[in-house]
Amino acid sequence: MKKIAIFCFLSIYSLAAMAQNADKISGIWWNEEKTTKIEVKLVDGKYNGTIIYMIPEKYENGQEPKDDNNPDTALQSRSLIGLTILEGFVYNAKKDEWKDGTIYDPASGKTYDCFARLENDDLLKLRGFVAGMRMLGKTSEWYRTE
């Protein structure tokens, strides 16, 4: 009976540790060029990232940048601020990465499969790829900020 109690305690403790690791992606990140801030948070059990700020140089005539490269013409007039560009990431404890997500690139209007890894607490590496092949992709580095 004692062994079962110890096993249960250790199982719960390890689950709590995994949840803490999973949540390390949460927060506010600068994109690679440091022109855009993205807030990553847990929504319905998956991690999503939404644009919350763009530097004033990105504005045209005082207007927020629009999603004008989106292939859907009905979406081209929407603001990039408030746009969710990361969706559906789940934490994989074995690989210490967030997987099964997508990343939307407003510059091209394309959405790519994506996974992410923390290099350290302040550097997030995201790799967007095509055709389910991680080798066919591009890595972007994001930096933690306030």
Descriptive notes:
Helix content is 14%, strand content 49%. It has one helix at 2-22, and strands spanning 27-30, 36-43, 46-54, 84-92, 97-105, 110-120, 123-130, 133-145. The chain has one helix and eight strands; from the N terminus they run αββββββββ. The longest helix has 21 residues, at 2-22. It has a single domain (2-145), classed as Lipocalin. It has an eight-stranded antiparallel beta barrel with strand order 1-2-3-4-5-6-7-8. The protein is globular and about 45 Å long. The protein has 146 residues and is mainly beta. Mean pLDDT is 89; it is low at 5-18.
Query: CATH fold name, please?
Result: Lipocalin
Helical fraction: 10-25%
Instruction: Give the overall form.
Output: globular
Task: Write the CATH architecture name.
Answer: Beta Barrel
Low-confidence stretches: 5-18
Element string (H = helix, E = strand): HEEEEEEEE
Number of strands: 8
Instruction: Label the structural class.
Output: mainly beta
Average pLDDT taken over every residue: 89
Number of domains: 1
Strand order of the largest sheet: 1-2-3-4-5-6-7-8
Roughly how many Å is the radius of gyration? Answer: 18 Å
- How is the main sheet built? 8 strands, antiparallel, barrel
Topology of this structure?
Elements: H1 2-22, E1 27-30, E2 36-43, E3 46-54, E4 84-92, E5 97-105, E6 110-120, E7 123-130, E8 133-145
Antiparallel strand pairs: 1-2, 1-8, 2-3, 3-4, 4-5, 5-6, 6-7, 7-8
